Amino acid sequence: MPHLTDERIRGLMMWHVRANANVKGRPNMKASDFQKWVNTELIPNHMPELRGFRNRGSVEVAAEETPKSPWAIPRATWKISVRTAKRWLFELGFRKTKHRKTMYIDGHERADVVLDRKRYVEELATYTPYMCNYCGDDMDIVTPPDKIDKAEVVLVVHDETVLHQHDGEDWSYQEEGGSSSLNQKSMGAGYHVSGFLSEKVGRLTMTKLQWDSYLSSLDAAGQLRAMLASEFHQAHKPDVGHLDANVSMFIGKGHTSDLHPSGYWTGDDVYKQLDHAITMFEILHPGCKGLFLFDNSTGHAKMADDALLAQGMNAKPGGKLVSKQRETAWTDSSGVTRTQSFVFKSGDELLFEAKGVRAAPLVHGEVVFDIGADVEIQRPGSRAWRKASVVSQNNGKYSVKICEAESARDVRDPVLANVDVSSIRAPAETYNKGPIDVRLVGHSKGLKQILLERGLIDGTSRLKSKCGTADKKKRKDAKAKEGIGIGESVEVPKHAGVLNGEACCLEYILSEQPDFKDQQNAIQELVISRGHYCIFLPKYHPELNFIERYWSRVKWHARQYSDGSKEGLRKAADAALSEEACDLALIRRYSRTAWRWVDAYSKGLDGVLAQWAVRKSKKHRCVTDAVDKEVNELVKDRERASAARAAATSTEEAPLVLGVLADMTAAGALCDNDDGE
Q1: Which residues pair with 194 in a beta bridge?
Q2: Strand, coil or helix: 239
Q3: pTM to 2 decimals?
Q4: Is the pLDDT of residue 400 over 70?
Q5: N or C: which terminal CB in the chain sees fewer CB atoms within 10 Å?
Q6: Which is higher by pLDDT, 139 or 99?
């Protein structure tokens, strides 16, 4: 029907399906769910003109002109059936598909992700001239680097995976006519593996002779550092753990230990593992530089304890936590480089009158309250603060007496024992502008003092410390009302930025300073400090990391030989990680596939076209010229279809074709010609 050529109506349907088709924690959307939404929400609320269609001859004529239109709605009820809902979903470009492990679609072509992918491809291109290429049937033909003015660069990729105790096949042979048995509902114990792969040698493993030879080449300080770094690996596998860069462990609440208090693998564990893995790389690749590749996960973005971070800093001096941020250097407006500390030192000057400052007494950087000191305390489970005084202290725990009773409980129990220092704070005081008060020495300066020292604000500034939750919600609501276009990020920035010529908050101003913007995470700092290179994948792009294919091989092997017990899983997983299960030639083939993806993206292809080009260029490191020509033809077909669609939608007799169907033309060609890998 002509009214359904409305872009708004089609957009609403597309948005609803994308938002509800596959939501974690909810059943997948069925055609009947879509039918119900169309009948109860879309037609009544967004297509009110249908109410008067029964007696309008023009509409009946329009319906007769297109009796086989996929968008036809029965005139008797103005509701659609499940069969019609399925037909609409098909015309919208959605297919009922079995979920398989492949490249991510959600967010893969988002504008900010595409920009980050371009960054990754361009950054990787600066290292490739210094890398060796591997080809041949057994991947043993080595082409040396194109450039030799620097050390050879070797790509080393990292990733983590979990193998499960009951991760078996989802099918089994059943006797014909007999009853079927149920599979295990639980996945069972999880065996976590964090590993590294090198394109040159495969797994990072070494012999005891290599390790002993390396230690003998170091001085006493170097030997001590290397031994300390290897302790993390040896704690997981005594005697031989330090000979393998991989670290494996059972995870879960039932597997807590001093090494893993939470029972799970964390960002701190990756850092500890990486320190020794770099040492192993240097032993196995003498004279080479490593390019360590990590995915874009939150655990890998962990900052060092003394990293420069504006987030979480108080606006005023003092507070319970003392800043651990390292001293930094910044350049003032006259071009002079200055050093800045984030805690007050003797001789510093307070540049504004600070009201409501809570500066607890410090001993070696730790908060320690004296006996008899006036404090404020917070009872467990209560948000109210009451005036009190310290009675005694023992091993960091305090006994305090409530001085100002505000409830019957305070009168009944005026003395609280074993109060943690986190539930005690110093009374608020005012500190005048001028030479620093001795009580502030060692305390954090706060955002306002730091920005005043840099001359970025004046003493009369009324800016708040940070954009609050309410501000972020306003921006999120405005974004939802405005609409989120195709390829546009749904994420809302932490800060509003500059509004009407003024920054939104103090935190934003400091976070935009060069020394804070250039702050690297802990992994980057460690790799660079050891003289190597570090690079991070763009989001939603596991196809660029060849260790992902290695993990699929490991899991397949473990499923074949695991007997379903925890010990059987461990043995099968360790055997699957050995060279016998996946040799160097196969690892290099996986790497070659990842390089084809990189080449496809470097040619400007999107995810769908890149996937087709990669599969058509099997056994090649790059997308071949012949495939490149075919891709160019597909792109031209897509552009012609897009132009035709734009011209058609501008007329009253617009064909019922969705905006996404132009891309489906190319997608159909891909399916026809895809020969797999």
Answers
A1: 160, 247
A2: coil
A3: 0.77
A4: yes
A5: C
A6: 139
Q: Are 559 and 168 in contact (CB under 8 A)?
A: yes
Residue 336's alpha-carbon distances to 189, 329, 342, 519, in angstroms, are 59, 10, 19, 21
DSSP 3-state of 391: strand
pLDDT exceeds cutoff 80 at 224: yes
Instruction: Tokens 């329009």: give the residue.
Output: 62
Question: Side chain identity at 589, as an amino acid letter?
Answer: R
Name the CATH code of domain 111-171+186-302+523-582 (choices 1.10.490.10, 3.30.420.10, 3.40.710.10, 3.30.1490.20).
3.30.420.10
The CA-based angle 599-602-607, given to 5 degrees, is 85
Which residue from 90, 95, 54 is spatially nearest to 74, judged by alpha carbons? 54
- Strand pairing report for 190-198 and 153-164: antiparallel
> For 184, what's the count of Cα atoms within 13 Å in the CB-facing half-sphere?
12
Residues in the chain, overall count? 677
The DSSP secondary-structure symbol of 282 reads H
What's the N-to-C CA distance of the chain in angstroms? 43
What element of type H or E holds 503?
Answer: strand 502-503
Question: Would you kindly state where each structural domain of the chain is located, as residue ranges?
Answer: 2-91, 111-171+186-302+523-582
**Residue 549 contacts residue 161 (beta carbons within 8 Å):** no
DSSP label at residue 494: S
Give the containing element (helix H, strand E) for 269: helix 267-284
User: CA 283, CA 210: separation in Å to the nearest integer?
Assistant: 7
CA neighbor of 293 nearest in space, from 482, 123, 57: 123
Alpha-carbon Rg for the chain, nearest whole angstrom, is 32
Average pLDDT over residues 225-251: 92
Q: What is the pLDDT of residue 10?
A: 78
User: 435 - beta bridge partners?
Assistant: 349
Contact present, 407 and 424 (Cβ < 8 Å): no
Return the bridge partners of 393, or none: 398
**What pLDDT, on a 0 to 100 scale, did the predictor assign at position 649?**
54
User: Could you tell me which residues are beta bridge partners of residue 122?
Assistant: none
Residue 28 neighbours by CB distance under 10 Å: 11
- What pLDDT does 676 receive? 39
DSSP, collapsed to helix, strand or coil, labels residue 111 as helix
Task: Measure the CA–CA gap between 563 and 566, rounded to whole angstroms.
Answer: 9
What are the residues facing 366 on neighbouring strands?
Answer: 363
C-alpha–C-alpha distance, residues 647 and 314, integer Å: 57
Q: Which amino acid is at 528?
A: I
Dihedral angle computed from the Cα positions of residues 84, 88, 89 and 92, in that order, rounded to the nearest 10 degrees: 170
CB 401 within 8 A of CB 388: yes
Q: What's residue 162's pLDDT?
A: 94
- Residue 20's Cβ-side half-sphere holds a number of Cα atoms within 13 Å equal to 16
| Neighbour-count burial for 166-188, b at 16+ CB within 10 Å, e otherwise | ebbeeeeeeeeeeeeeeeeeeeb
Expressed in percent and rounded to 5, the helix, strand and coil fractions of the chain are 40, 15, 45
pLDDT tens string 268-299: 999 999 999 999 999 999 999 999 999 988 88
